[in-house]
Amino acid sequence: MLEVTERIRSLYEQGLPFFKKSVFQDLVRQLDNCRANDPPVEGQIISIPAVDGSVVEVELETGLVMHHIDKETELVVMDPYLDYRTFQHLTIHDDPLYFSPHLAYCPTRLIYPLRSRRSSTKEILDPWKPQALEEVQDGLDAGIKMWEDSKDCRQLQSLFRAASVPSISKVVAFGCSTMAFKVDQRGTSITQHALILTMRDIVKQMTKSPDKPGIQCFAQDPIYTEVDKEVLRRSGITVLEDPRAFLEVDDETVVVSFAPDIPVRQIIADIARPAVLIWNTVWDEDEATAFWHALHPSFNPGCANRLTLASTDPESSRLIDMIRDHYSELTTLEPKERFTGATVYIRRD
Ligand SMILES: C[S@@+](CC[C@H](N)C(=O)[O-])C[C@H]1O[C@@H](n2cnc3c(N)ncnc32)[C@H](O)[C@@H]1O
Asked: PANTHER family from the xrefs (predicted)?
């Protein structure tokens, strides 16, 4: 195990990207080919590239019945999505039971959601019903108005007007969550989506060239319901399935991401140098350790990186270097509770 983690560290220190668009593209192609078989065919193989240059073959598990809950209901394995392992996941193994030698060098793997379904009809049982489309639309409209009328939004617009910003052609957002359920976090999700629209307007005003096509907006979050997708579509935001939003990110992109369940910042640091980053403030190692230690005071980290294992979107040395070497901080986003302590970074050209 030690030998493997030392090798991974060394490959990382040599600058080898752990996340690659070409790998995402290839996995999308393989999974789409398998999905073409309905019902799923047993024993289909997916090839996953590893950072040591090898390729690991895994058998697709879609459609497997894991467990019979009762006479009428069973737990079934759904279509996988990508599982992004952080540098911390790949190099810190506190419990050998969770160490998989087979996949040890694979930062991108597959993860399967489980759902319950009726055994007789195979109908998926969904305990959560989204609100009606017009109710969600009204909530989003009111939230956009509230955000656009706020001093925080106006301040952000005037900071961008005064800044020197590289060329931008799209806005790509990750993990802004669903707006379709009446829960406390809904306001946060609405304000985060309103910010996507504000960024599109800011970029439109900056780009006065009549020849340039419009600014595209994309959003990726597997939790989106059909209702979310429709209200976002009406606002000009296209929802993309994981990992397709990563394929859209390039050097002319504004990336928007707040407390995602996946390591968006480590992935982006490997695949592009976007024009603008609006995401959780990038801490140095001491700041990150202090934050996680305050949350888990009894835990002795042993090494700084170990504590950041608790984060789904942790810093890495490559991310910290990228921000230090290529970006300037424009401002922190307010209100903090709506933007989970995020900072706006602009690439220095
Ligand atoms: C902790 S919540 C944060 C939600 C919201 N941004 C906030 O600040 O309250 C994490 C979000 O990441 C989303 N997420 C999980 N996997 C993702 C993926 N592969 N791509 C984009 N978002 C993802 C979850 O569905 C969820 O909405």
From this structure: SRR1 DOMAIN-CONTAINING PROTEIN, SRR1-LIKE DOMAIN-CONTAINING PROTEIN
The answer, yes or no, to whether any atom of ligand 1 lies below 6 A from the CB of 74, is no
SS3 (DSSP) at 205: helix
Q: Is the pTM of the predicted complex or chain greater than 0.85?
A: yes
**Ligand 1 centroid to 182 CA: how many Å?**
17
Residues 181 and 128: beta-carbon distance below 8 Å:
yes
pLDDT tens sequence across 147-171:
999 999 999 999 999 999 999 999 9
Using the predicted structure, report yes or no on whether residue 213 has a pLDDT greater than 80: no
Mutate to test the pocket of ligand 1, among 223, 266, 311 (most ligand atoms within 8 A of CB): 223
Q: How far is the CA of 83 from the centre of ligand 1 (A)?
A: 13
Question: CA 169 to CA 275: how far, in whole Å?
Answer: 10
Residue nearest to atom 5 of ligand 1 (CA): 176
CA of 259 to the centre of ligand 1 (A): 7
Predicted confidence at residue 232, as pLDDT, reads 98
Q: How far apart are CA 195 and CA 175, in angstroms?
A: 13
Task: Give the burial string for 192-215 (b: 16+ CB within 10 Å, else e).
Answer: bbbbbbbbbebbeeebeeeeeeeb
Q: Is 192 in the pocket of ligand 1 (CB under 6 A)?
A: yes
Residues in contact with 65: Cβ distance below 8 Å, sequence separation at least 6, in sequence order? 74, 75, 76, 77
CA of 209 relative to ligand 1 center, distance in Å: 35
Contacts of 234-242 spanning 24+ positions with Cβ under 8 A: 234/137, 235/140, 235/193, 235/197, 236/197, 236/200, 237/173, 237/193, 237/196, 237/197, 241/81, 242/81, 242/82
Q: Report yes or no: 90 and 104 within 8 Å, Cβ to Cβ.
A: yes
Burial 45-67 (b: 16+ CB within 10 A, else e): ebebbbbeeeebebebbbbeeee
In the reported structure, the alpha carbon of residue 256 is separated from the centroid of ligand 1 by a whole-number distance in angstroms of 12
From residue 224, give the alpha-carbon distance in Å to each of 29, 103, 186, 241, 282: 22, 29, 12, 10, 27
* pLDDT greater than 70 at residue 30: yes
